[in-house]
Amino acid sequence: MKTVILICALIGVAYAQNCGITGVDDEIVTIDSVLELTALDELIWTAPTFNVTGAAAIQHPHTRYLTGLRYASRYEYKATAVFNEFIKTEWNSTLVRNVVFTCSDTLTKSYTFLLNVIDENDQPPVFAVKAYTATVSQAANTGEPISANILVSDGDFELSNAQLIVRSSNALVTPFVDPTWTGQHPRPYTYRIDLIVSQSLAVGRYTIIFTADDGRASDYTVLDLEVTA
Asked: 60 in the Ramachandran plot: left (φ > 0), alpha (ψ -120 to 50) or beta?
């Protein structure tokens, strides 16, 4: 009986000398709502630790986006100079960081950190070219879209930041916006703009300005439109 008690006591001591993040039992740590445009050396996450004497990041393509700092009783992450390029470079919104802590009893404790980075609306819409030409027959103006092959793209990761409002400088020529992608997170989101031309538009040549706006920035292109009989 004494031997059993002694073994249990030793196990208890060994367990007590293990280390890690205080209050975190899981080896996967999720950090939510990290802003994409976090500035250099800005604190992203911090937590108290116990019995940690060393920390080493396991090599990963995402390692360069974070600086891991170990202090006597806490561990934290700060943004590196390239952090705000993470989503655009990796085309991903989940940043992975693997760390191995060295414990005071020389054992180790591994953690995988998953940082959910919030895509911010920082990429403006861009038309493929600044000038287009198109010719339409007045008889063909039936209210159906007419192909003009005008293309505009937005490089944000989330569709909510890449949704565009396209306006025409001529009320008789309406832009018909057609997404060109299938599935989620294309790189970039590209829209094709066709024309709905009113039958009221007389024969002649028109200069029309199309503007695309994503709620934060905008771009424009000029269409030289000829309406024939």
From this structure: beta
